[in-house]
Amino acid sequence: MSAFNSYNALMGTAQLETDVAQFILPPAVMIGFQFRLAKGNPLTLESAAQKWDKASTEIGKTVEQLRGSLRAVPATAWDADDRRAYETKVDELCSQLTIMQVFCKIISIALLVLAWALFAFAIFAVAIGTFLAGLAAVAVAALAGVFTAPVYAKCLAIAGTCLTITYVATGILAAAAQLAAGVFQGGTMVNAALQHFKGNEAALGDFAQAQLTASATALANLAQNAVNGALAFRTTPGATAPGVKTPVPSIDLDADRNANHTWNVGGGATVNAGGMSHTVNGHVKWGDEGFAGGDLSYQGKHDASGLSFGGNVEYTDEDGIGRGKDGSFKYGANVGWTTPGSYTPNPQQPNSPSVSLPNVGVTGGISGEHNFETGQGKVEGYGSVQAQGGDVHKRTGTVEYGGPDGVKTSSKVETPFGTTEHKSK
Fold first, then answer.
1. Last residue of a domain, one of 153, 180, 215
2. What pLDDT shows up at residue 228?
3. Which of 213, 274, 344, 425 has its CA 20 to 30 A from that of 130?
4. Could you tell me the strand order of the sheet in which 328-338 lies?
């Protein structure tokens, strides 16, 4: 199990501590808001970094194989003008592949650095949260008259300093993300230019097309993030009246376009009704050939019992539904239970404040995908024990079918003490 598996537990603990402290120290409200905005997924970044590193290794092997195949033919067996022309082409191709190999390695390192930056921020967040929790206890004692009244004012001033420090830390994390983005952007441009000078005439044209595709989503994403940022503050604990649950505590809007020019537009919302929270998400996919599918998901949670359940379906056919190749289908279902995340001492009293609590739980589910064109697909199942939103024990299993090797199975068990894997032969 990677060190990054504890990230969610760390951030969950930090948010729990600031949620408690914000009832006594108002600056903790904005500190908790910064924690929520800065939360990421270092596990995903680590996985992506490993794949880029693997790509770099595989490209290096390809270069060695190409050069090796040329060396395997002695000059006495083939010594003519066409051999020298072939050697020139092989050298050009190997040069271009070497550039790509280095680029992949740099991307891998950049992603891993960003993952560690997120993890470091999580440790910082726990430190600040723990300090605020202790400071809140001192502030409560001051308000109760155990200490002199001016002590509370000093506690507020210290909490304000913590907020300033958090702003700086969040800015450093944002800078790390911008550096990683710069590696992608600048590295891609330099890579395209070098390949062009090495003889790949299509490299610059491909780079320009990639920029056009990416820029098509820029305005939509800026608007999306502006709306979502305002909504995130509105739903931060303490931003509105304490203890008040809004009917729609969360809204998220999406507008993205992939490399195949397919737009994925939609969003989701969380609604409180009937003692439960209901989160619904839906998107429509639209490409150059028209309607290309969509997705729908639902997640429900019963507030009193902590029981949750949900599912999702998605169909994608990027060359247009009913045209060309068949599409693919994805699906999933999940169920879980967690201890309540908060406690309200006087639930019958209007505007009664709630106190955040530690939470543990269990979760399990199944997901799968099927490609109607090839007949291939896979089914995955999982189960885990969690603490503060992070996995402390996780078991997964996968069945793949429809491929040239028939049915293949694999399983993995992850704990803080290590990982055990099994695969069918």
1. 215
2. 52
3. 344
4. 250-257, 263-273, 276-287, 290-302, 307-316, 328-338, 360-371, 377-387, 390-403, 406-415, 418-423
